[in-house]
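Notebook entry, structure prediction.
Reason for the run: the old model in the group folder had no record of what sequence produced it. Starting over properly, with the input documented here first.
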Amino acid sequence: LFFDYVDSTDSNGMTFSVDGKYFVGITSTILLDFDKASVGLAGRAAVRDLLGVGIDQTSIWGLITALLSLQIQFTVFHELGHIFHDHTGARNFRAEYKLTYNEEMRLRYYPNQDAVQAKEWLADRHAVRMLLTDFIGTDMGANFKKMTASSLSEDTCILWLIVLAISATFFFGPRERFY
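New structure, fully documented this time:
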């Protein structure tokens, strides 16, 4: 599995395979969009109040860093979801990521547009699952809470950060992709 940043004016992530090698990339433009979203969110008093984050420079930079990191990870995990769910011709790497019977039927029998949307939903679900697994009750989650100096409990802080980061990913992303 290879990962890289792609210089592009398109705001997106991508997954493809060549000769049995799998590639995940995110574009330079989406990184700029994520940066704008993270700075914008951290600059709002309502967001800082929700997370119990102070107005000192260290806490605000920690919040920007946490949101930016989660947006990037969500996008990469989403692209990995396409690989795990065999949307790129890749094999399923692990049994727990295989489609359920209902998911297989949804992809097999929906018209094309619904099948595309179902694949995106499955990749999103995979990304959320990976974020929760990586951050709830782990050192990574504890580090994000510490970075932001949030007054919330660790799990509550992480859940709100994930919700804000994913929401910003969709809000600031290309509208034509989300229907």
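Summary: The first strand starts at residue 2 and ends at 6.
The old model has been moved to the deprecated folder.
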